[in-house]
Give the backbone structure.
Amino acid sequence: MDRNLRTNLIAGTAGHIDHGKTALVRALTGVDTDRLAEEKARGISIDLGFAHLDLASGVHIGLVDVPGHERFVRNMLAGVGGIDFVLFVVAANESIKPQTREHFDICRLLRIERGIVVLTKADLAGPDMVELVRMEFEEFAAGSFLEGAPVAAVSSTTGDGIEHLKTEIGRLAATIPPKSSNKRARLPVDRAFSIKGFGTVATGTLYTGAIQAGQELQLHPSGERVRVRGLQVHGRSAERAVAGQRTAVNLAGVEASLLRRGTVLAEPGVLQSTTRFDAELELLPSAKPLKHQAPVHLHAGAAVIEAEVRLLSQTAPVEPGGTAMARIVLREPALLLPGDRFIIRMFSPVTTIGGGTVLDIDPPVRLRRAQTMSRLRTLLRDDPTVTLALLVRESRFGLTADAIAARTGWTSAEIEKTGAKQPRLGSNYVDEAWAADVAQQIRTTVMEYHRQHPLAAGMSREDLRSRLLADAPAELFEALLHQTRELVVEGEHIRSRSHHVSLAADEEAALRQIEQAFAEAGLAVPATPEVLAKSNVGKDRAKTLLAMLLKQKRLMRAADDLIFHTGAIHELAARLASRKGQKFSVPEFKDWTGVSRKYAIPLLELLDRERITRREGDGRVVL
């Protein structure tokens, strides 16, 4: 575990417009996060602001200052994802206001677990008013993540209470467990710009994993690859950024205009964007009933996307305060993973109405409602072993580790651990029942082939694969063959261990007759159809006997209609041995052997394959 993980945290502000969030950040850090001219002119935050606070304990806090005005809630949402705790701001001289409630709902829907209530502008309210507002907020937050949270009354103007607040921040920080840098790297971009002499810079909160200077990353959803030229963490140059840090990435290979808010930088070649996902949805008590196929604005990470909510668990609208299973269909692709939280806002008027948790980023289609609900209940268990078993069972040929990573975001180590009890064939994790069923089908098919072709040494592997697993990866098919112990794989044929060719008396006689015909012919080979016709065992059985002689290498095929007895080839090789190293032409070979040109070329190609001769230009040499 990286030692820095415990000392780098992200805090976000939340609260109503003009309740002093930006002034509070300035009092804590000395940084004015209102960077836009319009923000300074109007005295309100329009976009996200960032600062960092170094505590005496060694904890580094990245502060995300979010706007409070209802028109800029979408900007607030871009910054509040990925934070470790919230500084929930309420002005002591005004108490709870509309955006206080909306920001509170957003924090709750995003499952933010920790926070400090900061009563700002304490210098403008007497002690009695501060105490009254504190009591009002305690009642407001009852039963929520802020119930029993520390409360700090401050004045950003005089500085009163700021040191006490820093102490509370330090105490809270000590209780927050570290984030792991061993996950897949994901950095949602909330700002992108160009700096002269440096090029493109993207900033965001590193949700998971780690990023190194010099490494390659991939932009989602575009898929474009970029290289990290340099890094800054909390405003300082760094060689490495880890989960939970405010990170600025200097990128090579992309123009800033191609990076918009909501783009995600991730480990290359692993994760995949999606345009639909299944989720557990929660509707706020203040919302209106949510109908099937309702249009919404979806906020996930720093992205905002138009979407449609398709109810899965019911046909009736979701009532205020209710929950439901839903399929979210996005107007454009986004990089999401199971477990990600999101917010939905009404299409018009644009207000926050609910949120949820991503359960599956590639759900199967055309399932019945009962089947869909059953699988979603399985995914809700949040048990990796159970989840993997479900995903593997639903996939036709199982899943490779790469496919599992794309679907879940798990690392290679997590997949290896989770799949320890999952059957594996080749590169694929497979369902045990499916593997057993296919193995039985293979055994049955091979045994039926033996019944229909008793003289055949075995069934062609390509014939077997085309019948049962035509679309399966070759590696998976081979693994299934070799794990079926009742079968024997011999070159290109598969047979049952118990299968042995047993010839009837007429077949034994025909076999000898066919072989003798080729042996007596020497290099003047007979026409194969004529030889088989004289065997008196029928066309199909005669062909099988011929195949047996070829397999046993008693006969050798030079071309489809040109077969020599092995003895004749050995005799020819002995005659050529006296000419070792001699180069010769096709006409010379014809003179030596007495064969026509029609037979000479295929015969020479057979000799090449047997390493008796070797072709050199238009001629050959005896080896």
User: Anything to note?
Assistant: Residues 1-6, 34-48, 68-80 have pLDDT under 50 and may be disordered. The longest helix spans residues 432-452. The chain has five domains: 3-174, 186-266, 274-374, 383-502, 510-622. The domain at 383-502 is CATH 1.10.10.10 (Arc Repressor Mutant, subunit A).
